[in-house]
Amino acid sequence: MKCFTHQIDSVGICKSCNKAVCSDCAIDTGRGIACSEECVNEVNDINVIMDKSKQIYGIGSSSKLPPTGILMYLFFAVAFTGFGIYQTIIRERPDYFLFVMGAGFLIVGGLAWFRNRKLNLNC
After folding, report:
1. 3-state DSSP of the chain
2. Average pLDDT over residues 83-107
């Protein structure tokens, strides 16, 4: 591949605009190669976005607590099931809607937990 400016063999590709660059054009940012000062700013912005995305999705970190979304599913499963038990005791007949909702939240929470583990996400 040839440098987009000098038409000599390139040493890398700009992380921002994907143009081939030679050793004279390449600007090392520490976390990627840029071809111009404008692209240096873009490469730095790309790196910030990637770092924040990793932090949001919990990539590269581990936690002993389950993700908050799964905790919400568990909370609603317990709440619906508990209220269903309470209504069954008070009315002396089961309230199937509450039990079905509780089971549904439990199933969806379990599926979300398995999906997060498979994708190695912690969010």
Report:
1. CECCCCCCECCEECCCCCCEECCCCCEECCCCEECCHHHHHHHHHHHHHHHHHHHHHCCCCCCCCCCHHHHHHHHHHHHHHHHHHHHHHHHCCCCHHHHHHHHHHHHHHHHHHHHHHHHCCCC
2. 95
